Amino acid sequence: MPNDRPARHSWEIPLLVAAVVLTVVAYVAAIAALFLGVVSTWVLIVLVAPILIAVGRGQLYGSQQVNGIKMTPTQFPDGYRMVTEAAARFGMAEPPDAYVVLGNGRINAFASGHGFRRFVVVYSDLFEIGGEAREPDALAFIIGHEVGHIAAGHASYWRQLGQFAANYIPVVGSALFRSMEYTADNHGYCVRPQGARGAMGVLGAGKYLVSVVGFDELADRATTERGFFPWFVNLLSGHPVLTWRAAALRNRTRHGHLFVKPGQIYRDPLQLQYAGDPAGPVTR
Protein backbone atom coordinates (compact mmCIF):
# COMPACT_ATOMS: atom_id res chain seq x y z
CA MET A 1 0.00 0.00 0.00
CA PRO A 2 1.14 3.63 -0.49
CA ASN A 3 2.57 4.13 3.01
CA ASP A 4 4.01 0.63 3.37
CA ARG A 5 7.32 -0.79 2.26
CA PRO A 6 6.92 -2.16 -1.30
CA ALA A 7 6.29 -5.89 -1.09
CA ARG A 8 8.32 -8.41 -3.03
CA HIS A 9 6.08 -10.96 -4.73
CA SER A 10 5.86 -14.11 -2.62
CA TRP A 11 6.98 -16.35 -5.51
CA GLU A 12 9.96 -14.26 -6.61
CA ILE A 13 12.65 -15.61 -4.26
CA PRO A 14 11.65 -19.31 -4.55
CA LEU A 15 11.64 -19.01 -8.34
CA LEU A 16 14.95 -17.14 -8.27
CA VAL A 17 16.50 -19.91 -6.17
CA ALA A 18 15.24 -22.47 -8.70
CA ALA A 19 16.71 -20.41 -11.56
CA VAL A 20 20.09 -20.09 -9.80
CA VAL A 21 20.18 -23.84 -9.14
CA LEU A 22 19.42 -24.52 -12.80
CA THR A 23 22.13 -22.06 -13.85
CA VAL A 24 24.68 -23.76 -11.59
CA VAL A 25 23.68 -27.14 -13.01
CA ALA A 26 24.12 -25.76 -16.54
CA TYR A 27 27.62 -24.48 -15.72
CA VAL A 28 28.65 -27.76 -14.10
CA ALA A 29 27.35 -29.67 -17.11
CA ALA A 30 29.10 -27.32 -19.55
CA ILE A 31 32.43 -27.58 -17.73
CA ALA A 32 32.11 -31.37 -17.55
CA ALA A 33 31.32 -31.52 -21.26
CA LEU A 34 34.37 -29.38 -22.01
CA PHE A 35 36.65 -31.68 -20.01
CA LEU A 36 35.20 -34.65 -21.87
CA GLY A 37 35.96 -32.96 -25.17
CA VAL A 38 32.33 -32.37 -26.05
CA VAL A 39 32.04 -28.88 -27.49
CA SER A 40 28.68 -27.65 -28.73
CA THR A 41 26.90 -24.35 -29.21
CA TRP A 42 25.10 -24.51 -25.86
CA VAL A 43 28.34 -25.32 -24.02
CA LEU A 44 30.01 -22.26 -25.52
CA ILE A 45 26.99 -20.03 -24.77
CA VAL A 46 26.97 -21.08 -21.12
CA LEU A 47 30.72 -20.63 -20.68
CA VAL A 48 30.89 -17.19 -22.27
CA ALA A 49 27.61 -15.96 -20.71
CA PRO A 50 29.37 -13.92 -17.96
CA ILE A 51 31.28 -11.98 -20.60
CA LEU A 52 28.32 -11.60 -22.94
CA ILE A 53 26.10 -10.27 -20.15
CA ALA A 54 28.77 -7.79 -18.99
CA VAL A 55 29.44 -6.54 -22.52
CA GLY A 56 25.73 -6.32 -23.32
CA ARG A 57 25.02 -4.30 -20.19
CA GLY A 58 27.92 -1.96 -20.89
CA GLN A 59 26.87 -1.47 -24.50
CA LEU A 60 23.29 -0.75 -23.45
CA TYR A 61 24.41 1.87 -20.93
CA GLY A 62 26.85 3.41 -23.40
CA SER A 63 24.07 3.72 -25.97
CA GLN A 64 21.98 5.78 -23.54
CA GLN A 65 24.99 7.95 -22.68
CA VAL A 66 25.57 8.94 -26.29
CA ASN A 67 22.06 8.77 -27.79
CA GLY A 68 19.57 9.30 -24.96
CA ILE A 69 18.30 12.63 -23.66
CA LYS A 70 19.22 12.66 -19.99
CA MET A 71 16.65 13.84 -17.46
CA THR A 72 18.03 16.66 -15.32
CA PRO A 73 16.60 19.49 -13.21
CA THR A 74 16.58 21.62 -16.37
CA GLN A 75 15.81 18.96 -19.00
CA PHE A 76 12.61 16.96 -18.58
CA PRO A 77 12.41 18.29 -15.01
CA ASP A 78 9.07 16.57 -14.28
CA GLY A 79 10.51 13.19 -15.19
CA TYR A 80 13.67 13.90 -13.21
CA ARG A 81 11.58 14.78 -10.17
CA MET A 82 9.58 11.55 -10.52
CA VAL A 83 12.79 9.51 -10.62
CA THR A 84 14.32 11.22 -7.59
CA GLU A 85 11.09 10.96 -5.61
CA ALA A 86 10.80 7.25 -6.37
CA ALA A 87 14.43 6.64 -5.38
CA ALA A 88 13.92 8.51 -2.12
CA ARG A 89 10.71 6.59 -1.44
CA PHE A 90 12.61 3.30 -1.75
CA GLY A 91 15.52 4.45 0.42
CA MET A 92 18.10 4.47 -2.37
CA ALA A 93 21.31 6.37 -1.62
CA GLU A 94 21.14 8.19 -4.96
CA PRO A 95 18.70 8.22 -7.87
CA PRO A 96 19.55 6.26 -11.00
CA ASP A 97 20.37 7.99 -14.24
CA ALA A 98 17.27 8.44 -16.40
CA TYR A 99 17.01 8.93 -20.16
CA VAL A 100 14.35 9.64 -22.75
CA VAL A 101 14.89 7.88 -26.09
CA LEU A 102 13.00 8.06 -29.38
CA GLY A 103 10.07 5.65 -29.26
CA ASN A 104 8.86 5.77 -32.88
CA GLY A 105 5.40 4.77 -31.69
CA ARG A 106 6.51 2.09 -29.23
CA ILE A 107 5.25 2.17 -25.65
CA ASN A 108 8.10 0.93 -23.48
CA ALA A 109 10.38 1.65 -20.55
CA PHE A 110 13.08 -0.43 -18.87
CA ALA A 111 15.71 -0.42 -16.16
CA SER A 112 19.21 -1.86 -16.26
CA GLY A 113 22.72 -1.24 -15.04
CA HIS A 114 26.42 -1.44 -15.73
CA GLY A 115 29.09 -1.66 -13.05
CA PHE A 116 27.88 0.38 -10.10
CA ARG A 117 25.58 2.52 -12.24
CA ARG A 118 21.86 1.95 -12.61
CA PHE A 119 19.63 3.66 -15.14
CA VAL A 120 16.05 3.99 -16.34
CA VAL A 121 15.03 4.50 -19.96
CA VAL A 122 11.61 5.85 -20.98
CA TYR A 123 10.57 5.84 -24.63
CA SER A 124 9.42 9.23 -25.84
CA ASP A 125 5.93 8.06 -26.78
CA LEU A 126 5.38 6.84 -23.24
CA PHE A 127 6.80 10.03 -21.81
CA GLU A 128 4.15 11.98 -23.71
CA ILE A 129 1.43 10.75 -21.34
CA GLY A 130 2.99 12.98 -18.69
CA GLY A 131 1.32 16.06 -20.16
CA GLU A 132 -1.36 17.66 -18.03
CA ALA A 133 -3.99 16.91 -20.70
CA ARG A 134 -3.44 13.18 -20.26
CA GLU A 135 -2.22 11.08 -17.31
CA PRO A 136 0.88 12.44 -15.52
CA ASP A 137 0.16 10.09 -12.60
CA ALA A 138 0.45 7.14 -14.99
CA LEU A 139 3.93 8.27 -15.99
CA ALA A 140 4.90 8.59 -12.31
CA PHE A 141 3.63 5.05 -11.70
CA ILE A 142 5.62 3.67 -14.64
CA ILE A 143 8.78 5.47 -13.58
CA GLY A 144 8.24 4.19 -10.04
CA HIS A 145 7.86 0.69 -11.49
CA GLU A 146 11.21 0.95 -13.32
CA VAL A 147 13.04 2.46 -10.35
CA GLY A 148 11.43 -0.35 -8.34
CA HIS A 149 13.20 -2.92 -10.52
CA ILE A 150 16.48 -1.31 -9.47
CA ALA A 151 15.51 -1.03 -5.80
CA ALA A 152 14.51 -4.72 -5.77
CA GLY A 153 17.90 -5.77 -7.20
CA HIS A 154 16.58 -6.88 -10.58
CA ALA A 155 19.20 -4.83 -12.47
CA SER A 156 22.19 -6.41 -10.69
CA TYR A 157 24.80 -8.12 -12.86
CA TRP A 158 25.07 -11.04 -10.46
CA ARG A 159 21.30 -11.38 -10.35
CA GLN A 160 21.09 -11.49 -14.14
CA LEU A 161 23.96 -13.97 -14.34
CA GLY A 162 22.43 -16.17 -11.64
CA GLN A 163 19.08 -16.37 -13.41
CA PHE A 164 20.69 -16.85 -16.82
CA ALA A 165 19.30 -20.37 -17.31
CA ALA A 166 15.76 -19.10 -16.71
CA ASN A 167 15.88 -17.36 -20.10
CA TYR A 168 15.81 -20.81 -21.73
CA ILE A 169 13.26 -22.54 -19.50
CA PRO A 170 9.81 -21.22 -20.51
CA VAL A 171 7.60 -22.00 -17.52
CA VAL A 172 10.14 -21.44 -14.72
CA GLY A 173 11.75 -18.45 -16.41
CA SER A 174 8.54 -16.75 -17.46
CA ALA A 175 7.04 -17.23 -13.98
CA LEU A 176 10.14 -15.67 -12.38
CA PHE A 177 9.95 -12.68 -14.70
CA ARG A 178 6.22 -12.26 -14.05
CA SER A 179 6.85 -12.26 -10.30
CA MET A 180 9.50 -9.58 -10.78
CA GLU A 181 7.02 -7.46 -12.73
CA TYR A 182 4.48 -7.78 -9.92
CA THR A 183 7.19 -6.70 -7.47
CA ALA A 184 7.97 -3.66 -9.60
CA ASP A 185 4.24 -2.87 -9.85
CA ASN A 186 4.11 -2.86 -6.05
CA HIS A 187 6.88 -0.26 -6.08
CA GLY A 188 5.06 1.84 -8.67
CA TYR A 189 1.87 1.63 -6.60
CA CYS A 190 3.68 2.86 -3.48
CA VAL A 191 4.98 5.87 -5.42
CA ARG A 192 1.76 6.86 -7.19
CA PRO A 193 -1.24 4.57 -6.49
CA GLN A 194 -3.61 6.82 -8.44
CA GLY A 195 -1.44 6.25 -11.51
CA ALA A 196 -2.06 2.50 -11.67
CA ARG A 197 -5.27 2.89 -13.67
CA GLY A 198 -3.72 5.15 -16.27
CA ALA A 199 -0.63 2.97 -16.55
CA MET A 200 -2.71 -0.08 -17.42
CA GLY A 201 -4.75 2.04 -19.83
CA VAL A 202 -1.74 3.29 -21.77
CA LEU A 203 -0.22 -0.20 -21.92
CA GLY A 204 -3.49 -1.53 -23.30
CA ALA A 205 -4.71 1.22 -25.61
CA GLY A 206 -1.81 3.60 -26.12
CA LYS A 207 -1.05 7.21 -25.27
CA TYR A 208 -4.02 8.77 -27.07
CA LEU A 209 -6.78 6.49 -25.79
CA VAL A 210 -5.58 6.03 -22.22
CA SER A 211 -8.25 8.30 -20.79
CA VAL A 212 -11.16 6.24 -22.19
CA VAL A 213 -10.01 2.84 -20.87
CA GLY A 214 -12.26 1.44 -18.14
CA PHE A 215 -9.84 0.11 -15.54
CA ASP A 216 -12.47 -1.86 -13.63
CA GLU A 217 -13.76 -3.45 -16.82
CA LEU A 218 -10.19 -4.46 -17.65
CA ALA A 219 -9.56 -5.88 -14.17
CA ASP A 220 -12.94 -7.69 -14.08
CA ARG A 221 -12.00 -9.61 -17.21
CA ALA A 222 -9.19 -11.35 -15.30
CA THR A 223 -11.98 -13.32 -13.65
CA THR A 224 -14.53 -13.52 -16.48
CA GLU A 225 -12.24 -14.42 -19.42
CA ARG A 226 -12.19 -18.23 -19.46
CA GLY A 227 -10.57 -20.96 -21.51
CA PHE A 228 -7.25 -22.70 -22.00
CA PHE A 229 -5.52 -20.16 -24.22
CA PRO A 230 -5.89 -17.06 -22.00
CA TRP A 231 -4.28 -19.13 -19.23
CA PHE A 232 -1.64 -20.50 -21.63
CA VAL A 233 -0.70 -17.02 -22.89
CA ASN A 234 -0.07 -15.89 -19.32
CA LEU A 235 1.90 -19.05 -18.51
CA LEU A 236 4.45 -18.36 -21.26
CA SER A 237 4.58 -14.57 -20.84
CA GLY A 238 7.42 -12.71 -19.14
CA HIS A 239 4.92 -10.04 -18.04
CA PRO A 240 1.60 -10.77 -16.34
CA VAL A 241 -1.18 -10.50 -18.91
CA LEU A 242 -2.78 -7.08 -18.68
CA THR A 243 -6.10 -8.21 -17.20
CA TRP A 244 -4.43 -10.16 -14.37
CA ARG A 245 -2.02 -7.30 -13.79
CA ALA A 246 -4.86 -4.80 -13.48
CA ALA A 247 -6.68 -7.13 -11.09
CA ALA A 248 -3.56 -7.37 -8.91
CA LEU A 249 -3.24 -3.58 -8.80
CA ARG A 250 -6.87 -3.29 -7.73
CA ASN A 251 -6.78 -6.05 -5.12
CA ARG A 252 -4.05 -5.06 -2.65
CA THR A 253 -4.97 -7.79 -0.15
CA ARG A 254 -2.84 -10.48 -1.85
CA HIS A 255 0.00 -11.03 -4.28
CA GLY A 256 -0.68 -11.06 -8.01
CA HIS A 257 -1.72 -14.36 -9.56
CA LEU A 258 1.04 -16.22 -11.39
CA PHE A 259 -0.56 -19.47 -12.53
CA VAL A 260 -4.30 -19.43 -11.82
CA LYS A 261 -6.63 -16.58 -12.75
CA PRO A 262 -8.34 -14.58 -9.97
CA GLY A 263 -11.40 -16.37 -8.68
CA GLN A 264 -13.50 -13.35 -7.77
CA ILE A 265 -14.05 -9.74 -8.74
CA TYR A 266 -12.71 -7.44 -6.05
CA ARG A 267 -13.02 -3.69 -5.65
CA ASP A 268 -10.49 -2.11 -3.29
CA PRO A 269 -12.06 0.72 -1.24
CA LEU A 270 -8.78 2.64 -1.27
CA GLN A 271 -8.53 2.36 -5.05
CA LEU A 272 -12.08 3.65 -5.35
CA GLN A 273 -11.11 6.58 -3.17
CA TYR A 274 -8.20 7.44 -5.46
CA ALA A 275 -10.41 7.09 -8.52
CA GLY A 276 -13.14 9.27 -7.01
CA ASP A 277 -15.74 6.54 -7.54
CA PRO A 278 -18.92 7.46 -5.62
CA ALA A 279 -20.35 3.96 -5.86
CA GLY A 280 -18.29 2.63 -2.97
CA PRO A 281 -16.61 -0.77 -2.65
CA VAL A 282 -18.04 -3.75 -4.48
CA THR A 283 -17.03 -7.36 -3.84
CA ARG A 284 -18.62 -10.20 -5.73
Automatic annotation (TrEMBL):
GO BP terms in the entry: proteolysis
Q: Does the keyword Hydrolase apply?
A: yes
Cofactor(s) needed by this chain: Zn(2+)
Transmembrane ranges? 12-36, 42-61
Write down the superkingdom of origin. Bacteria
InterPro entries in UniProt: HtpX_protease, Peptidase_M48
Q: Ranges for the Peptidase M48 domain?
A: 80-156
Q: Does the keyword Magnesium apply?
A: no
Keyword field: Cell membrane, Hydrolase, Membrane, Metal-binding, Metalloprotease, Protease, Transmembrane, Transmembrane helix, Zinc
Q: Which Pfam families match?
A: Peptidase_M48 (PF01435)
Q: Where in the cell is it found?
A: Cell membrane
- Molecular function per GO: metal ion binding; metalloendopeptidase activity
Return the cofactor note field: Binds 1 zinc ion per subunit.
Q: How does it sit in the membrane?
A: Multi-pass membrane protein
- What is a single cellular component term in the Gene Ontology annotation? plasma membrane
Q: Matching CDD domains, A to Z?
A: M48_Ste24p_like
PANTHER family for the chain: PROTEASE HTPX
Family label? Belongs to the peptidase M48 family.
Q: How is this protein named in the record?
A: Possible peptidase
Q: Which organism is it from?
A: Rhodococcus wratislaviensis (Tsukamurella wratislaviensis)
Which classification does the entry list for the species? Bacteria, Bacillati, Actinomycetota, Actinomycetes, Mycobacteriales
